[in-house]
Design brief:
Distance between the termini: 34 Å
CATH class of the largest domain: Alpha Beta
Shape: globular
Helix content: 40-55%
Number of domains: 2
Low-confidence stretches: none
Structural class: alpha/beta
CATH superfamily of the largest domain: Type I PLP-dependent aspartate aminotransferase-like (Major domain)
Strand content: 15-25%
Number of strands: 14
Mean pLDDT: 97
């Protein structure tokens, strides 16, 4: 049977029909009062979910575009930043910094481990001229959730900008931009905010805005001075043509998050993740991420000996219409990943684990079926 593919990946995530259908509405012109209220409401709702009363701007991009926007607008060429690397996306911040002629100092961790405040403190002591610190909130390459609250507490009175890549974490995990002393927080539409790809988000503290006003930004399309100017017009707008249809879907998704309650969504994802981790262990599989760093966004699973992760991903996809994620970079030979965010629930998790068991039996790992599914059901029954 030709089935729609169920996305159990950490982005883009599975979306519901209301959000998808919203994107099919007739277009509105982006510089009229037909569009401005929708744009303004998206900004207001996102500020509520970012937990900030500061400036928040929208761009037309994926998360990487928002990362580039953060770097391009806040640093002069040659300035030092401390780039905390706990996976592929921490490394991406370093690469973007090089592209904009900065002097990034990588703080590298073994994949699967979270960042430590004391290590950041040592680097700042060694390099007092560091002007910014970048940290990934949730690393989808490694399943690591970094403790931004503790890092922000340490950096509060330091003369550095605290920047986070929150692309997969904001909207999916508890997050408080202002209370955690963040200067720049970025995200995108296709993960925790349950919409199609295409809208980048960047929230800015007063200190971040002061710095960007002083920087001669070498970007044009992503120069935030244009975005601030246009957001403050009598008819608020993007400076350029936005992804209007994606904005319709994002607006629908944000309204739904507000109706359900974001705290309930966090609890729902936590329950799915706890049940998944329980079932993985019941199957005799191990979790790649260190126990103190695991995230409710996804679980990164070590592949059984003798089986390549691509075999598992291919079998579950081709035979059953469920897409899991493979590993990234040097983990491509070692792990596969299952997301626990998106328009999914117990139904999708039970199906995914049951089908994973069938795949593992076909591939010669499992002799008997049902142990993982049973553990999952027991976990759900106790929640």
């Amino acid at each position: 049977m030709d089935l729609d593919i169920l996305l159990m990946t950490p982005g883009p995530v599975q979306l519901d029909s209301e959000v998808l259908l919203a994107g099919a509405r007739p277009l509105r012109h982006h510089r009229t009062n037909d569009f401005a209220p929708l744009y303004s409401e998206c900004v207001s709702l996102l500020k509520k979910f970012f937990k900030t009363n500061k400036r928040l701007l929208l761009t037309t991009s994926s998360g990487t575009g928002a990362m580039e926007t953060a770097i391009a607008n806040h640093f002069h060429p040659g300035e030092k930043i401390l780039s905390v690397e706990t996976g592929a996306f921490g490394e991406r911040f370093t690469q973007i910094a090089h592209a904009f002629k900065l002097n990034p100092i990588p703080l590298k961790y073994p994949w699967g481990h979270r960042a430590k405040v004391e290590d950041i403190a040592k680097e700042l002591d060694k390099n007092p001229d560091i002007k910014g610190v970048t940290v990934t909130f949730n690393e989808t390459s490694t399943g690591v959730r970094n403790d931004l609250e503790s890092i922000g507490k340490f950096l509060k009175n330091k003369d550095v900008l605290f920047i986070t890549d929150g692309v997969s974490g904001i909207g999916a995990l508890p997050f408080e931009m202002d209370a955690w002393n963040l200067d720049v927080a970025i995200s995108a539409s296709q993960k925790g905010f349950l919409a199609p790809p295409g809208v980048g988000m960047i929230a800015l503290s007063e200190r971040a805005i002061a710095k960007l006003q002083a920087v001669d930004c070498s970007a044009y399309y992503f120069n935030l001075k244009h975005y601030i100017k246009n957001q403050d017009l009598p008819i608020p707008s993007y400076p350029w043509t936005p992804a209007i249809s994606v904005m319709f879907s994002l607006h629908e998704a944000l309204k739904k998050i507000e109706r359900v309650g974001i705290e309930k969504i966090f609890a729902h994802y936590h329950n799915l993740a706890e049940a998944l981790r329980t079932s993985v262990k019941a199957l005799g599989l191990s979790i790649f991420t260190q126990p103190d760093a695991v995230s409710d966004v996804l679980t990164v699973i070590n592949t059984p000996p003798g089986i390549h992760p691509k075999q598992i991903v291919k079998e579950v996809h081709d035979s059953y219409g469920v897409l899991l994620a493979g590993g990234q970079d040097h983990l491509a030979e070692k792990v596969f990943r299952i997301a626990t965010i998106g328009a999914i629930g117990e139904r999708e998790m039970i199906g995914t684990i049951g089908l994973l068991e069938l795949a593992l039996k076909k591939l010669g790992y499992l002799k008997d079926l049902g142990v993982g599914t049973t553990a999952l059901l027991k976990s759900f029954s106790q929640q």
